[in-house]
Amino acid sequence: MCIGLHSYAQKVTNVRSTQSGDKIVVLYDLSGKADVSMTMKAGTEKQSISRLSGDIGKGINKGQDRKIIWDVMSEYPDGFEADSVVFTVKAYPQWRTFVLAEGAVSPSPLQYSGGIMIGRAARWGYYLKFRSSFMFAPSNDGYFSSSYVHIGSSMMPVNYSDISKLITGKTKNTEIIGNVGAMCNFSMNTDYPMYVYLGLGYGLRRQMWEFNGGKWLQYEQTAYEGASVDFGLMFALKGFLLDIGVNTINFQYAEVQFGIGWLFNK
Fold first, then answer.
1. In this structure, what CATH number is given to the domain that contains residue 241?
2. What is residue 236's three-state secondary structure?
3. Are 3 and 87 in contact (CB under 8 A)?
4. Are 175 and 205 in contact (CB under 8 A)?
5. What is the span of the domain harbouring residue 49?
6. Which is nearest to 209 in space by CA: 196, 197, 220?
7. What's the pLDDT tens digit per position in 174-229?
């Protein structure tokens, strides 16, 4: 007697089995594209089973009456005896690769950056992210704030009106972000997944101002370096991906990040 069972953890239902000649056919319904496996227990012992064909393996499309065919006589030419045979069909979310072109904007001072986010995801996933302003500041001749200017070994107290007379008005912004992170599909839907993600890494943000005499000084109040943290949501419509989130360096400022990309089938 053949009894069909299914895994409740995923979207496999209505499992049943029949005998067709010297083969056994296991039918099931699958509500979302997934990787499918099947195991067998004969009596109280688990038996090896490998001569399988049909709707089993990676990337099985959703649908009713999915079919797994077991070539029994090829695998057990001498046959085997058991009071009962139990088949268990399991479906797992398919691991898929994604790539996004990503950008970010920070309001104060206004600064843009762009980069790439790549990763792999199923129910859970991981990603790598790199982003930069692609504008690299010149050599640092010193630094300044709203109350002082430091060049070389000398520091000069100043006020805002003094600084306005010393600067040329030219600025260059440098930003580099590199993060790794984890993600989770909280929608439990394989066709329209919605991921929440959290990442950690390294971040550098620097704003340089040109002073009279061609010297470039770093503005201390907008210079950050250290732990980069990002958090966001990613939405998929079939293969099309949209991403929206926030990023910060040392929790000292925040910028909005956004992306557009593609979720591949494998």
1. 2.40.160.20
2. strand
3. yes
4. yes
5. 2-92
6. 220
7. 899 999 999 999 886 767 889 999 999 999 988 888 888 888 888 888 888 899 99
